[in-house]
């Protein structure tokens, strides 16, 4: 094979390999946005009857605006079980995942009866809730 063909082949292989980290970062933002969009659909199907996304608008459960980083049981005017008030939880992705998977196991005595057993759906909902939080933690 002539040298110029070898050099062209080397460049054609090296450039895509070097571009992979950049491509991964570029693709992760749209993927996260899609996950959050799917999460909003999951939220509307599963959560909206009991929770609002507007600060100060509590329903059966507390509003979920700025939930990431918030201490459980701390929304003024919301009704909480004693178990939730005393849980000491500060909501992050890990705590939300455990709670949404099985609320009554995560916080025995909680008043939230409904869980989200599907891990992908939980991840989508959590990504959506992150978009409602000031620092998108």
UniProtKB/TrEMBL annotation:
Q: Which GO terms describe its molecular function?
A: electron transfer activity; heme binding; metal ion binding
Q: Which domain of life is it from?
A: Bacteria
Under the heading InterPro entries, the entry gives: Cyt_c-like_dom, Cyt_c-like_dom_sf, Cyt_c_1A/1B
Membrane as a keyword of this entry, yes or no, is no
For this protein, the record's PROSITE patterns field holds: CYTC
Does the record carry Disulfide bond as a key word? Answer: no
Q: Which Pfam families match?
A: Cytochrom_C
User: Where in this chain does the record put each Cytochrome c domain?
Assistant: 34-133
Q: Where is the signal peptide?
A: 1-19
Q: What keyword terms does UniProt attach to this protein?
A: Electron transport, Heme, Iron, Metal-binding, Signal, Transport
Name the UniProt record assigns to this protein:
Cytochrome c
What species does this protein belong to?
Answer: Oceanibaculum indicum
């Amino acid at each position: 094979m002539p040298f110029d063909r070898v050099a062209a082949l080397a460049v054609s292989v090296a450039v895509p390999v070097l571009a992979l980290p950049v491509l991964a970062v570029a693709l992760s933002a749209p993927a996260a946005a899609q996950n959050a969009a799917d999460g909003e659909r999951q939220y509307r199907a599963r959560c909206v009857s009991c929770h609002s996304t507007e600060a100060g608008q509590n329903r059966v459960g507390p509003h979920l605006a700025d939930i990431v980083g918030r201490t459980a049981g701390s929304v003024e005017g919301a009704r909480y079980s004693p178990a939730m008030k005393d849980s000491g939880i500060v909501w992050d992705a890990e705590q939300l995942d455990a709670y949404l998977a099985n609320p009554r196991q995560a916080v025995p005595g909680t008043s939230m009866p409904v869980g989200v057993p599907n891990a992908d759906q939980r991840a989508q909902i959590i990504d959506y809730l992150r978009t409602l939080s000031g620092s998108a933690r």
